[in-house]
Amino acid sequence: MVTTTTPRQAVTMKAVIQDRYGGSDVLRVGDVDVPEPGDNEVLIRVHAAGLDRGTEHLMTGKPYAMRIATGIRRPKNPVSGRDVAGTVVKVGSAVTRFAPGDEIYGVAPGSFAEYAVGPESKLAHKPINLTFAQAAVVPISAGTALQALRGVGKIQAGQKVLVIGASGGVGSYAVQLAKIFGAQVTGVASVAKADFVRNLGADHVLDYAHDDFADGTRCYDLILDIGGGSSLKRLRRALQPRGTVVFVGSENTGNITGMGRQLRGAIVSLFVPERLALLVAKERASDLELLTEHLEAQRLVPTLADSFSLDQARAAMQLLEAGSIRGKVVIIPLDSHAQDVTA
């Protein structure tokens, strides 16, 4: 049984869908059924949906190991998107934290659509000072950065932290959160994005094409390697004695598991003083609630670069594939198609 306050039901909705794995060319806008929430789920009227690297992986089906869960030959869920911000339309019978009309944000698979269903355990009330578009670029990327720094990295005030990939979705929040936690932060990014990283609060910015973070000029207590490809030897060279590297993401590490370098790092850690740790991020409401505190206090700022309509989702994905986005972008459903939904 579900609870709702809206007067009329939409049977279908517009969504960004894919029928096969591949590049951005597999994405198209089509009509699909409006999803129905289960007992522990919430149906959301989507106002904005963030684009993250995880959505790209789901689109390409790489690394291949992920297809065990997402579909061997084609996606089990053909609707793209994960980050979401919107208004609650219905709640399942076991949901206790939300009611129809609430403004929320979090994770809802299939969020590149007019409506999406998300589990209560991965949703939180939207920060009151943020627009839906700003809120939609926070959940997965900021939550991942938080877990990398605090959960796995065990960050301490006064530490020197290196963020490799500082201008991307996760990196842009990692820089800000590391500063909130009292660290001295160095970001690695392209020259074109150096000012963006400085404005996030980085104390130092290195050009990934010309500056060598492992040249001995500085050594770091904690390194976040976000989708990088540096060798384990080079990463260890940049660490303080007994420092920690946290591997975030699976880019540039092979098409089978996407974690070959990370797994080697875990083995090496058994025999060296440095710690090389793999982050397995979990999407959870408790992290969102902590992030909300920082966002409402304006200690943390959403890294919203641009917005696109459903029809422009392919173009947005192409920018992500090219690595040209500073922070994150959002997909905004076409309001002209949206209708109210009831039980």
TrEMBL record:
Coiled-coil region list: none
Domain Enoyl reductase (ER), residue spans: 22-331
InterPro entries: ADH-like_N, Chloroplast_QOR, ER, GroES-like_sf, NAD(P)-bd_dom_sf, Quin_OxRdtase/zeta-crystal_CS
Any Pfam family hit: ADH_zinc_N_2
Record-linked SUPFAM superfamilies: GroES-like, NAD(P)-binding Rossmann-fold domains
Leader sequence segment: none
Protein name from the UniProt record: NAD(P)-dependent alcohol dehydrogenase
UniProt source species: Terrabacter terrae
Upper classification of the organism: Bacteria, Bacillati, Actinomycetota, Actinomycetes, Micrococcales
